[in-house]
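Lecture notes, continued. The same structure-token format from the folding unit now serves as the input rather than the output. Read the line below as a description of shape only.
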């Protein structure tokens, strides 16, 4: 054996090879010998020569990466060494200097070696061959070979747990399936086995529930509440994707009972109750469930599933669920995924637990119109606004979800909108004399905490860096929640004289605010993009003029670019920027949800930050003075507000000035019009559109028919679509379809670019007027408290007399009193404190445009003499 060992070392040195047989990959021989060598060396504590040690570790690494998420059937059953033995070998494999003096005891080699036959039968791809692609046939193929490509499963906590617990299971790849219906269609199973349907439900009073049933089971949430013996009134609803991400750390369409391992047992506020279908555990030999991804499933026995749940210390409830009525489609969807688009009649209640109120097969979309993309929105804006919003931004390709809660990927369609806002804004601030700069992402703890009120305002949201590599930092470093404390020490160095003023800088950057409430893409995220302007001035008047100038730009972004009406005004003392002197704001209204949202703010910081950061200058008389400062910021929240205000049940409706594409040309290809005939005509139209300064595209894709393209571009919100058919070419015309109102008109192609250029302004004005009318219809004046909450319940913004923004205690009184009365009116006992929105009213602003206030008018809350009108509402 010693001679053979020496031959390995000599061969590796002589041929300068990584493997004994394979070149780019380990061969079967490398794998078998590597396992034997590792076992013998570890058991006998025998040091391996350097090249042999390197070879053995390389083979083990490759083997570990390939099989750590797979279980070879029969491996554990027959008492063979668990595959998780490989990981310890990687760290404990002894290494020596050379081959001399190595003693290998033959007795140390087990006979027979149990691992060799099992692994030797597993083929490894030759270096020149690509890894085999999993079969596309619907029948699941258990992955029992090392040929499966599983690099993208690296770090899958669920699969690691199953291996760690030594539970017999099989993992297989299949076509991505986000719903139970899709899974049943894509991966047929024997009658003795079952997929799972999973619903992640939320009740404000009773918390969160993960319900796992067989695909054909019916789930009636009212009966479910009774079966779980939940006290009082229950209102179990599908939780949205943000809650799913926050609590289970999984994306829509990828949920199953296995992901309960990712819940935090110490987070009592987000405790999840697991409810299992009794038939899943008693009527089937195997259960199949997603391991955090919807293109892969795990097959395991009910006993293995129960053992898994026991070992992760998850208690569960088992209930009986009736089957769907004969002929009914399998009901339910992966939690927080796109819900059904149409409604079916409820099936009779066979047992307590029962039928989903909405059900449809995956192929049954709204109306089933010819040419539909099968990706139509499945919630109506008026029925479930949060779910509709989530559908719109995903299906229109604006965002993708990310594996860190509260962080999202901005896809090119939405990022282009942000770029268009940047272009407009940069031109405006350049006219103000503002220059762009960039400051670091990190801020020291000393600097952040220098301004007491400021840090207290941001403290709950600050993210801290505490480690570097394997070591702890001497002092934690904050990731910027805003940049005052980063920029102003530099201002202290740069500003010495009145000649250095005004100093006007802007930066486009990202900031991190670690929101604890459930995030909403664009509106409330842990990382977001923004611009922040920071200026310093010799006088208060000059600073205040800049504040108002910046606020006017924000009004312009919303009204002149996004066609969203806003209310400009002052924030109250309670709502102003922490550490600042006075805050101004523009407030928008979302008619679909009946909520207001802060659009952007511009702050007069006074001299407070100048004092804290020792910023001073000498005036013309040689006197030392503190400058007056401003800060003002606009975020990617603007995009979310625009979507919520203008979107409809088809998808996005984009204002032309921020639409990535303003016009799309779609040829109607048929036997009467070939691509060769359509191309010259359409390309000439495209050239005319671009010459007119329009962002336009000719959709000449041959893989999609015209109906599919219509739906696709409508969903993405393109303001105008041009349709070109054979008759249009004959008549030298084109059909123009307007997205926001569905108007269709035929126009000559001559001068079409100029006509559509002017039409963009008409579309913008019409969209703005529609949004303003919807907002104005929900703004009411109230002078008596008895009318306050009833108007909130009507989704109104309420303008009331007020004793002054400095009376913070009365704001808190109104907030708590309105919450209590709203809950009473709704028949609810408590409010879900974890949600990002509340039924309580808050002050939005003291509008600049003040209605007449008759003498003697009393404040609606305190009864004191009113000094102004203040706008209240429920807010994001």
């Amino acid at each position: 054996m010693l001679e053979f060992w020496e031959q390995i070392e000599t061969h590796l040195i002589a041929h300068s090879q990584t493997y004994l047989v394979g070149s780019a990959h380990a061969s079967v021989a490398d794998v078998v010998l590597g396992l034997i060598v590792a076992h013998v060396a570890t058991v006998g504590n025998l040091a391996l020569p350097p090249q042999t040690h390197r070879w053995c570790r390389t083979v083990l690494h490759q083997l570990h990466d390939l099989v750590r998420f797979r279980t070879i059937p029969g491996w554990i059953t027959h008492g063979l060494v668990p595959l998780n033995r490989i990981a310890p070998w990687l760290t404990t494999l002894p290494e020596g200097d050379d081959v001399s003096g190595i003693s290998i005891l033959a007795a140390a080699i087990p006979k027979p070696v149990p691992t060799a036959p099992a692994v030797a039968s597993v083929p490894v791809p030759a270096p020149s061959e690509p890894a085999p692609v999993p079969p596309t046939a619907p029948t699941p193929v258990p992955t029992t070979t090392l040929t499966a490509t599983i690099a993208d499963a690296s770090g899958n906590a669920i699969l690691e747990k199953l291996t760690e617990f030594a539970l017999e299971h099989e993992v297989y790849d299949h076509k991505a399936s986000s719903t139970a219906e899709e899974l049943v269609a894509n991966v047929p199973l024997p009658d003795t086995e079952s997929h799972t349907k999973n619903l992640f439900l939320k009740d404000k009073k009773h918390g969160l529930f993960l319900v796992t049933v067989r695909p054909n089971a019916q789930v009636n949430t009212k009966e479910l509440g009774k079966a779980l013996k939940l006290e009082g009134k229950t209102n179990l609803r599908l939780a949205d994707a943000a809650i799913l991400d926050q609590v289970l750390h999984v994306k829509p369409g990828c949920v199953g009972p296995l992901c309960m391992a990712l819940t935090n047992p110490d987070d009592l506020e987000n405790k999840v109750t697991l409810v299992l279908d009794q038939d899943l555990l008693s009527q089937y030999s195997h259960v199949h469930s997603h391991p955090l991804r919807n293109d892969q499933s795990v097959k395991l026995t009910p006993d293995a599933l129960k053992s898994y749940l026991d070992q992760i210390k998850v208690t569960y409830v088992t209930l009986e669920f009736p089957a769907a009525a004969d002929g009914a489609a399998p009901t339910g969807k992966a939690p927080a995924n796109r819900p059904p688009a149409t409604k079916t009649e409820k099936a009779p209640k066979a047992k307590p637990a029962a039928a989903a109120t909405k059900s449809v097969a995956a192929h049954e979309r709204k109306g089933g119109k010819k040419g539909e993309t099968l990706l139509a929105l499945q919630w109506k804006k008026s029925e479930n606004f949060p779910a509709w919003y989530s559908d719109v931004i995903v299906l229109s390709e604006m965002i993708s979800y990310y594996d860190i809660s509260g962080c999202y990927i901005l896809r090119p369609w939405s990022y282009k909108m942000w770029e268009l806002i940047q272009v407009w804004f940069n031109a405006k601030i350049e006219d103000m004399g503002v220059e762009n700069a960039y400051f670091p992402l990190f801020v020291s703890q000393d600097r952040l905490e220098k301004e007491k009120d400021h840090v207290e305002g941001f403290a709950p949201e600050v993210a801290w860096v505490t480690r570097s590599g394997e070591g702890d930092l001497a002092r934690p470093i904050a990731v910027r929640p805003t940049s005052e404390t980063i920029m102003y020490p530099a201002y202290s160095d740069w500003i010495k004289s009145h000649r250095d003023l005004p100093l006007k800088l802007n930066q486009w950057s990202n900031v991190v605010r670690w929101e604890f409430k459930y995030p909403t893409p664009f509106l409330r995220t842990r990382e977001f993009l923004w611009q922040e302007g920071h200026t310093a001035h010799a006088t208060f008047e000059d600073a205040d003029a800049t504040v108002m100038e910046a606020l006017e730009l924000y009004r312009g972004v919303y009204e002149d670019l996004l066609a969203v009406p806003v209310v400009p005004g002052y924030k109250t003392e309670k709502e102003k920027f922490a550490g600042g002197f006075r805050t101004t704001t523009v407030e928008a209204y979302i008619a679909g949800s009946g909520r207001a949202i802060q659009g952007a703010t511009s702050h007069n910081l006074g001299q407070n930050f100048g004092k804290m950061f020792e910023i001073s200058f000498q005036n013309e008389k040689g006197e030392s003075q503190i400058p007056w400062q401003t800060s003002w910021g606009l975020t990617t929240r603007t995009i979310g507000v625009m979507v919520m205000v203008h979107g409809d049940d088809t998808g996005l409706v984009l204002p032309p000035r921020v639409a990535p594409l303003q016009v799309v040309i779609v040829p109607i290809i048929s036997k009467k019009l070939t691509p060769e005939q359509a191309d010259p005509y359409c390309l000439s139209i495209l050239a005319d559109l671009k010459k007119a300064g329009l962002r336009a595209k000719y959709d000449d894709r041959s893989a999609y028919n015209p109906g599919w393209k219509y739906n696709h571009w409508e969903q993405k919100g393109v303001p105008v679509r041009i349709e070109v058919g054979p008759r249009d070419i004959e008549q030298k015309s084109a059909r123009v379809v307007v997205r926001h109102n569905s108007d269709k008109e035929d126009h000559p192609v001559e001068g079409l670019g100029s006509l559509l250029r002017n039409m963009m302004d008409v579309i913008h004005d019409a969209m703005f007027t529609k949004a303003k009318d919807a907002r104005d219809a929900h703004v009411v004046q109230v002078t008596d408290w008895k009318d306050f909450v009833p108007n909130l319940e009507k989704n109104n913004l309420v303008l009331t007399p007020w004793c002054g923004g400095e009376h913070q205690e009365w704001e808190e009184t109104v907030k708590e009193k309105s919450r209590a009365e709203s809950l009473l009116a709704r028949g609810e006992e408590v409010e879900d404190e974890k949600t990002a929105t509340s039924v309580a009213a808050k002050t939005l602003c003291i509008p600049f445009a003040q209605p007449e206030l008759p003498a003697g008018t009393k404040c609606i809350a305190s009864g004191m003499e009113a000094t102004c009108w203040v706008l209240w509402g429920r807010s994001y």
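Point for the exam: Confidence is low (pLDDT under 50) at residues 68-82, 98-154, 326-374.
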